[in-house]
Amino acid sequence: MTQQIRTTLLTGFYELVSQLKGSPEALLISSRINPHQVESLDGYLALDQVAELLNKTASQLNCADFGLRLAYSQGAAALGSLGAAVLQSLTLGEFLNTAIKQLGNAPYNLRVELTKKGKHTHLSFLCIDDLEAQLAEDAPPPQQQSREFLLGVSLVALQHLCGSNFQLESVHLKTERPVHNHYENFFGVPVHFGKETDAFILNSSSLLQPTEKCNPSLRPLLKTYIEELLQKGEASLVEQVQQLIYCLMPLKRCSLQEVANQLGMHKRTLQRRLRDRELVFEDLLDRIRRERAEYYLSGKQPPMSQISDMLGYREQSSFNRACYRWFATTPMRVRRQLMAQIVAREAAQELAEVE
């Protein structure tokens, strides 16, 4: 079962290698990778090829921290094709659970685990262990660059997802000793070597940290997700419109005209095709906004201003008016009512279990 990663994760490879006075094309060809694919950042690459590339590059250019340097240049591209996980998740914990499931499926087949251990939660990266097991008979070179690259990419992704407040507690590495002296500068926390697995150690409370769906740096990610969604062509028109609403709301671009543009049709054509199904675009948008608002208001986070942004309102007052129309009360009172209902249900379930 071949493990793969998106070619977009080699964003910045050409620039970084050139800065280090190396030949990007020669390194790619020697690692069985088509340079044109990396130039266009198209499709997927086998993880063993990327591992070979990173190790050769680090060795030939005498750059022991190449994996971390390349990871640092990723930006929002580090989130790869996890647009669905970003859109579906309100908190860091929800994102991690959704992303882990997605990465475990084809074409990635990457093993990542989230384990709570008291006040701390370990985000463990086991995919390189799988890679080493597959290549064991061929006596591969050490996979340290791959380990550090995937850890670095993951950190950059989480920082873009959660903003400047995101913070690790520490980092665990399987390697017995450091191969350079840039670890703590990159991760910003203590790094411990000779551990059982490569892992990020987080305070468990950080899993409740809200994601930043409206972060401008995520717009290219959502754009890529929209393009992939439409290329599949498997969903019905209504499903495509609904998915586009989810994507475009946080960008404040959720209009009939914009959705029609994404679908490559005139807005009157889209209106007519929805009307043939007894649907109106504005009603679909309003229903999705109400469902999302109810979901967001069912917990203590996120704050009202962020909910307003995620639903695509340009003014907080517009969200307040919509909330009063939906629920006949203010957003704050809706939050209190929903949280009280959740507490009551949990108490009832506990009582039923006791009986």
Automatic annotation (TrEMBL):
InterPro entries: AraC-type_N (IPR032687), Homeodomain-like_sf (IPR009057), HTH_AraC (IPR018060). Keywords: DNA-binding, Transcription, Transcription regulation. It comes from the Bacteria. Coiled coil: none annotated. Residues 239-337 form the HTH araC/xylS-type domain. It holds the Pfam family Arabinose_bd. This is AraC family transcriptional regulator. The lineage of its organism: Bacteria, Pseudomonadati, Pseudomonadota, Gammaproteobacteria, Cellvibrionales.
